[in-house]
Write a structure and sequence with these properties.
Layout lengths: L1 E6 L3 H17 L4 E6 L3 H5 L15 H8 L5 E5 L11 E6 L7 E5 L18 E4 L2 H10 L4 E4 L4 H10 L5 E5 H7 L7 E2 L14 E6 L3 H9 L3 H17 L7 E8 L2 E9 L6 E9 L3 H14 L7
Parallel strand pairs: 1-2, 1-3, 6-7, 6-8
Antiparallel strand pairs: 3-10, 4-10, 5-8, 5-9, 11-12, 12-13
Helix pairs in contact: 8-9
Length: 306
């Protein structure tokens, strides 16, 4: 049996889809995988003046169209980029074990060849990010930071940092750096308290047609139970809170000593207001926990910040 997996054509997307393909072929002898590269609206408009206006759908719509048309059997997305409004008749499943979910700081190269540390930033440092959430957390850490829009794939963003005369550092997801195995790159992870990760950051998700039980069985073979529970908790939180890619919202679930623990935050765009919620539940109550934390934040007034 051969299955066709749809992917964007970026280096990171191909690397991540390759991980899924290898896991399928290693765990399910007799199944071969064909990668189908598909350009999305987001890919075509990346680097343009209106790139900041794009929503998550712009990065997945063409993959969804291919999926519902039967041109591919699966589509692979970064969990943090998967929108809440998926195509009718499809569903999302977390696959593989979650990669490092944290955000990282990468500083400019200093005269001695080392990279600037976060604690070495000047008081009014210019820091690059394209994320509303990261920008808000940076401003919460220091209101004097100057946030600069910084877009592109992982290697492009690092190159642009190294060529910049203004930027002292940038913030990226640890998962992308670690999956790409970027060599000789010194970076610092923010703690979840300093910067609550994006919803489903570090998780890979497979999108499939809900009626394809044969594909569901394949996906189940490469799923990680702990990651799936965290995915469900954070995803339900996202649905309830009503967040989108332009919201300063973070949620991070993990399993500790057999219990599902979750923390979440909603911020004003300037970082002056930070609303937080934390909780725990049995791993079988993942969706309920996500819904409860979202409801707690909405009661605190999060809706006014979204």
């Amino acid at each position: 049996m051969k299955i066709r997996i749809g992917t964007r054509g970026s280096e990171l997307a191909l690397t991540q889809t390759g991980l899924v393909a290898r896991a399928i072929e290693e765990n399910l002898p007799g199944i071969s995988v064909e990668l189908v590269t598909i350009k999305t609206t987001g890919d075509l408009r990346q680097g343009t003046a209106d790139a900041a206006l794009l929503d998550k759908k712009a990065w997945v719509a063409e993959l969804e169209n291919a999926l519902t048309a039967g041109e591919i059997d699966l589509a692979i997305h970064s969990g943090k980029d998967a929108p809440n409004d998926t195509a009718y008749g499809t569903e999302l499943c977390a696959v593989l074990k979650r990669e490092n979910p944290l955000d990282v700081f990468i500083g400019r190269i200093k005269a001695d060849g080392s990279r600037l540390r976060f604690e070495e930033l000047s008081e009014d440092a210019a820091v690059g990010t394209a994320s509303t959430r990261r920008a808000a957390f940076l401003k919460a850490l220091s209101s004097s930071f100057r946030i600069r829009e910084h877009r592109g794939n992982v290697t492009t963003r690092i190159r642009k940092l190294d060529q910049s005369e203004e930027l002292e550092g940038i913030v990226l997801a640890a998962a992308g750096i670690e999956r790409l195995a970027v060599k000789d790159l010194d970076y610092q992870c923010f703690t979840p308290e300093q910067m609550v990760p994006a919803i489903n950051q570090g998780i890979l998700v497979a999108q499939l047609v809900a009626s394809r039980t044969d594909i569901k069985e394949i996906v189940a073979k490469i799923s990680d139970p702990a990651t799936e529970k965290c995915f469900l908790a954070e995803r339900e939180f996202s649905r309830t809170i009503g967040a989108d890619c332009h919201s300063a919202v973070g949620a991070y679930a993990r399993i500790e000593f057999g219990k599902l623990i979750m923390s979440a935050a909603v911020l004003s765009s300037d970082g002056t207001t930070v609303l937080r919620a934390e909780g725990g539940a049995a791993v079988t109550e993942a969706a309920r926990l996500g819904d409860k934390l979202a409801s707690d934040l909405l009661e605190q007034g999060a809706g006014e910040l979204l």
